[in-house]
Amino acid sequence: MLKVWIRQSHRWLSMAFTMAVIANFIAMALVEPPAWIVYAPLPPLFLLMLTGLYMFVSPYITRQRGTARS
User: Where are its TM segments located (predicted)?
Assistant: First the structure.
């Protein structure tokens, strides 16, 4: 159940990150953007890194646990 939740949140975070980057480019094209727009993509990016690392490492962890029990 945790893997499904992590994978789903990773998908939604990627959409939020994409929208923040698009807003950043639009703001930079129009005016000098405020700092909160410039740094808006960073929190989703950090969370994407955490969820992505979890999804990357989880098969190796479960494989290790499976071989240790056998």
Answer: 12-30, 36-57
